[in-house]
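Practice problem: predict the structure.
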Amino acid sequence: MSFVTLNECPPGIFRTEEGGYGFKSEYSTKGKCDAYCLSSGEYFYGGVVDVEERGLQMVEPLDVIADLAAIKAEFQKVGRIADERLAALDRANAQVTELKADLRRAQNDVADRERELRNAREATDRARQAAAELRGRLKEVRANQMVRRGDLVGFGEARVPEFDPYDDGVPF
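Answer:
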């Protein structure tokens, strides 16, 4: 609002040009408006002696009820925004929890695949060793035309040959 004279000011709270606050009553004494200081409750003179001059002082009417309603509406708006942000934060936290669980599952899958790879490499190494041993025995057999008892054990089945613990390596 803008400044008006005290006489033109509607009943209610007003602010002076100096920054003080007062209250103008709807009643009047001897044709002159009744106004009081909010801070002390004393009759408002505004630094003048004459009642005529007091009515000509510039004051700014304040609509406290409308201001409070506006503050309340703003507070409710801020509350709604805060609630929306809190809900968004809760959703984000739930997503983070899900992503952490997905990460743990992926890490477990990687560990499983690494374990399977290690087992496969070990099996491949064992198979290579068995193949090398068999190649060596085959060369020996071809060279000597002799057969050891261990060379005969475990063949005919689809698996790695088992070696006879009693085989002393002496051909028979």
